[in-house]
Structures are given as C-alpha cells and as structure tokens.
Amino acid sequence: MSLTFIAMAVAAATPHATHIVQLDHRGSPMQATYAARAEFRHKTVGAKVPNRIDMQRCQWTATIVVDRALNHSPALARTVSSDKQISGSETGACTVGRRSGERNLAQHDAAIRDHLLAVAKGDHAPLLAELDAVRNLASN
After folding, report:
1. pLDDT, tens only, 62-84
2. What is the mean pLDDT of residues 103-126?
3. Which of 3, 55, 72, 87 is the most buried (most CB within 10 A)?
4. In angstroms, how far apart are the furthest CA atoms of the chain?
5. CA 24 to centroid of chain Cα atoms
6. Exposed, middle or buried by CB within 10 Å (0-12, 13-18, 19+), for 139?
7. Closest CA to 119 of 67, 63, 48, 61
8. Is 135 helix (H, G, I), strand (E, B) or coil?
C-alpha cells in the first residue's frame, strides 16, 4: 500500500509533457499551460511459493492527469482531465526502487502527447466561459 503512495508522490511532482496555448480574451492576451503528469498504482499479483518458479507479476496502471494553469490567474488553475489510463505488467514483485510503470511509460509518449493536445483543444470553450464568469462576477 505504501508503495503506491510513494510512486504517486514521485510521479505527481514531475510533469510528463506540457503544451502552451496563447489566447485572447476580450482584448487581453493570456497564456494557458497544460501539463500532463502520471499518477501510478502498482499491485503485485500471483504467488511466490518455496521450491517453485516465482509466479509474481507487478501490474501497474498510470492515470494521465492534465492540469491547466493560467499565467495571470492562479485561481483558475485546475485539473482538466484524468480519464486516460495506460497499464502494463512485468515479471516479479513490485518493489520501491523498481519503478516499473515509470520505465515503461516512455513507450507511450506519443499517446500522452496526443491526449494532452486533445484536452487542451477541448478545454478552449470551457476556459473562455470560466474567464467570462470571473469577469462578470468581478464587475458586479
């Protein structure tokens, strides 16, 4: 159980990919930065029986989380998406220093980048709506 939390803390600290979008909101130039990061879960499955071949496998799942931050307003920073999952497994038990998912996630860089770009594109209208709502709230 603690292995999962350690892996999630390490993975959450390092972004996997970033994408910057320049936009104009009512004459004000703004910049939105989208950052994809992976949150890992590891689980050892199978049995390790004396005098037999080790049947354990380390199954990992990476949830790709996309966070949005605006250059002028930290109040509108939030997680935009956390629906993409990538998974795999390796022989042997999950251990703290093994980093199974982290090593294998590099094979999925193109899929993560495509997901990041799709999320950024899909967030354009909601972002403008949030900016309008904040502007309307501030003017009342």
Report:
1. 999 999 999 877 777 889 988 89
2. 91
3. 3
4. 75
5. 26
6. exposed
7. 67
8. helix
Half-sphere exposure of 125 (CA within 13 A, CB side): 2
Q: By percentage, how much of the chain surpasses pLDDT 90?
A: 40
Tokens describing residue 65:
């989380």
The answer to whether the CB of 70 falls within 8 A of the CB of 32 is yes
Q: Given the structure tokens 């093994």, which residue do they identify?
A: 98
Q: How is 36-94 classified by DSSP, letter by letter?
A: EEEEEEEEEES---TTS----EEEEEEEEEEEEEESS-GGG-EEEEEEEEEEEEEES--
Q: Are 40 and 86 in contact (CB under 8 A)?
A: no
Cβ atoms within 10 Å of 67's Cβ, excluding its own:
18
66, 83 Cβ separation under 8 angstroms: no
What H or E segment, with its residue span, contains residue 110?
helix 109-122
Quick check: 30 and 70 in contact, CB under 8 A?
yes
Tell me which DSSP letter residue 22 carries.
Answer: E
Whose CA is closest to 127, among 7, 33, 48?
33
pTM beyond 0.90: the answer is no
